[in-house]
Batch of 2 targets.
Target 1
Amino acid sequence: MIKKIPNSKFKIINFGFTLIELLVVISIIGILASLLLARFSSAEKSGRDTRRKSDLNQYRTALENYAVKTNGLYPSYTGTIDASVSLCSALGATYIASCPQDPRQDGSTYYYRYLSNGAGSPNINATQYILWAKMERETNLYWYVCANGKAAEKTAQPATSDCGF
């Protein structure tokens, strides 16, 4: 907008936005950014949950290959163990090249667990096992896989009865 001042040779040129226009645009950008951030957080959780399922399937494959060499038996432990530490050392590089760990790796809330029906370590006398991980997208949601091929989600920590042993 060009404005000429009366009795003057000068012209005042106003190119710009009013304060109200700027505030409206900034608030719209803020609202859109917060919506995108919420979507991104949800997508991250789903991505980590998908990785957890894939990691447990990798452990299952390693355990099945291990069982082929040990006449259908799996590593035994007394109680529940951290799969990414103890189970990995039992399987060794022969059966699992790298030991997947939970994407969050905090060790207290998100972890991979293994439980067998054998008579303690270092025996190889288990005929059944259950592997599980806590999911992020919903509170108290677990994904588990069993020696019998069953894989499912459960809203409580899985137990041996979920796999039939």
Target 2
Amino acid sequence: MRATKRSIAQLQDRLRGITTIRSEIDAEIHTLGLNEESKRIFESFSEICQNPDCGLFIGSSQSYAKNLLYLKDQMKDLERNEQIARTRVTVLQETLREEEAERTDIASQIVPQGGGGEIDEVLAAIRHVYTSLYESEQKKTALGILSNERATCFRLEADRDRIQERIATLTQIGHANLEFNRLRLELRSLIVKWLDVLETKNVKRDVEIDLDFRITFGGERIEQIPGSTKIRVVLAIHAAILEEYLKQPDRPFRFLILDTPKQQEIQTQDLAGYLAAVSKLVEQADAQLIFSTTEYRFPAEEHDAEWVPTFAGPEQLMYLHPVRPTS
């Protein structure tokens, strides 16, 4: 009986919560309606949109339609859940009345009739068995409720993840998802890290990566950055992407091919520090760094390999043998 009352109370709490959520959704739908009405008023102003097909408010109309459809879907789900909960409350209340009637009937039958000691012992045994059965039934009911609550918890967590992904899709017009947002945040911090490794000056650390993967530094695009600073920024981006890629040990292409900048483009000591940091990164991640250089010579270690040209050329040694004329 206690389990039934507890279930009724939980369902009634859920009904009150559904009512509150429905009120909030109604208010949101009303707000969307006001926004759409405002859009129509703005469209009627010839100073704002002289051509009826100017398309100024196309994005607003599409966003209104998507959000309104989503809210109406949520309202239908809430109405269905509310009806199910009310039906369940009615059934449980009827069950509760039957249990109370059965309890009253059993209690009336257990009242002693003034007999001898043997009758009292039988009645005491009956009461003991009844109490044991009642307690066992309560424990069984509690275990069932716990199992249902766990299943509900798992389902709600899955619904939460789905709703978060859908909200991200609606607010960013379908271009982003949670994993892509995480990648952008990771790359932002890694780019700043490698900018510091390269001793990069005159570049803001306010890195932003938009949905089309365009990278800006305090609103400044890469092509707007002048001289050797641009070389440092590009090297920092390459190293950041490589480090993020190598975090997953099962990714197959574990190498970076790099054309070393010329000495007039970046200072030797900064380039040496950068290459040493990248070499340490690839060594720890079981990867490989391959770079081509003519002016800078990287100090090779025991696990490094150097491939030098061996064929004579017009001005310098070449990797490929010159083509011999055929007779």
